Amino acid sequence: MDARHLERRLVWTIILDYYTILKEGFVVPIVKVDMDYKKMVEYGDILVVETELIENPAAKLCFEYRIYKKSDRELVLSAKTIQVFLDKAGNLQLTTPIFFEKWKQKNGIK
């Protein structure tokens, strides 16, 4: 496992482990993506991806992303995604799953 893979895995684990979501009987497909390209990148550029879980009371995951060039921290892309909770049968969950509410409380997220 190289450092880039390890770094991505650590960030995702801190946010919320997808395997936990699956074990709880849910999937969280992306239903909306919004991207704003700021600057071109070139082959060989090393990029830094910052991901933030946005607090919200709904039964969904909202993330904001910022991608920078590592060399000068120049912002090259900002983005947002929305993911919804579906049960194993594919039914949209209108209330936040209990395990996710507990996870948010544990991590100080409203």
CATH topology: Thiol Ester Dehydrase, Chain A
Q: Output the strand order for the largest sheet.
A: 2-5-4-3
Which stretches are low in confidence, meaning pLDDT under 50 for 5 or more residues running? Answer: 1-13
Name the CATH superfamily classification: Hotdog Thioesterase
Average pLDDT figure: 84
- From the spread of the alpha carbons, the general shape counts as elongated
SSE arrangement, N to C: HHEEEEEEH
In the CATH hierarchy, the architecture is Roll
Give your account of this protein's structure.
There is one protein chain. The protein has 110 residues and is of the alpha+beta class. The protein has a single domain (3-106), classed as Hotdog Thioesterase (Thiol Ester Dehydrase, Chain A, Roll), CATH 3.10.129.10. It contains 3 helices and 6 strands, in the order ααββββββα. The strands form 2 sheets. The protein has a 4-stranded antiparallel sheet with strand order 2-5-4-3, with no helix packed on it. It has a two-stranded antiparallel ribbon with strand order 1-6. A hairpin with a 5-residue loop joins β3 (47-54) and β4 (60-69). It is elongated, with a radius of gyration of 16 Å. The termini are far apart. Residues 1-13 have low confidence and may be disordered.
